[in-house]
Amino acid sequence: FLDLDIQEIPSPFPRVKLWTGTDRLATTIGRPPAIVQGWGIRRGGKCILTGAGGRGKSTLLLQLACNLAAGMPLMGFGALSVNGPQRVAVLMSEDPLSEVKFRWERQMSALGCGSEVAQRLAFLDPQGARLSLGDDYGRQALFDALRLHRADVAILDPLVAIHDSDENSNAAMRWVLDRLSPLQEETGCTFVIAHH
Q1: Which bin fits 44, alpha (ψ -120 to 50), beta or left (φ > 0)?
Q2: In terms of DSSP bridges, do strands 153-157 and 34-36 run parallel, antiparallel, or are they unpaired?
Q3: Cα(50)–Cα(147) distance, rounded to whole angstroms?
């Protein structure tokens, strides 16, 4: 046994760091910066807006896009102040681009937003194709568009249009949402996703 070379066998399991309460108090791990105060929407996070179909989620998301790009409090509510103007990319998969344009222009006018706000907004047009997080090509096309716009926030509407997984399976939906994580980690992009 004295001449035996001892090698550590790597574990197939992930290492888990154990933090005591004292350790945590001594660390300076900060939270990601808030994009919207009061709601807790943070840089690099995910936010899911849920509601029954046909109840106005898409219209609400277009107003959120305008508010975020303008740096205006959400819905004019001061407690939901936006941490400066954000670059926002919008993918609306259920409505034709002409309808999205019509609604968006009306909201921009009603909110008094001008060309400086319009420059911070981008609308993704897959031109008849379907962008799916389930396939690498669709996910890469989405990521490339978001990088090109340098999006701080990406609004995806609705979730069901960008995947083919079983929405009744927590594991399948976790996989779908995890497909967004590489871009979040790389760029700090926050995703706001509509779900029926």
Answers
A1: left
A2: unpaired
A3: 26
Using one digit for the tens of pLDDT, what is the confidence trace for 146-162?
A: 999 999 999 999 999 99
CA distance 188 to 190: 6
**Is the distance from CB of 43 to CB of 82 less than 8 angstroms?**
no
Token code pair at residue 66: 């305008």
pLDDT, tens digit, for every residue of 12-23?
A: 777 888 888 998
Residue type, 182: P
Position with higher pLDDT, 19 vs 141 = 141
Please give the structure tokens belonging to residue 128.
Answer: 């008849």
Q: What share of the chain is helix, strand, coil (3-state, %, to 5)?
A: 40, 15, 45
d(CA 66, CA 121): 8
Q: Is residue 158 within 8 Å of 15, Cβ to Cβ?
A: no
Q: Calculate the CA 111 to chain-centre distance.
A: 23
Q: Would residue 48 be called left, alpha or beta, if left means φ above 0 and alpha means ψ between -120 and 50 degrees? A: beta
CA distance 24 to 52: 41
Tokens at 49, concatenated: 């807006």
DSSP 190: E
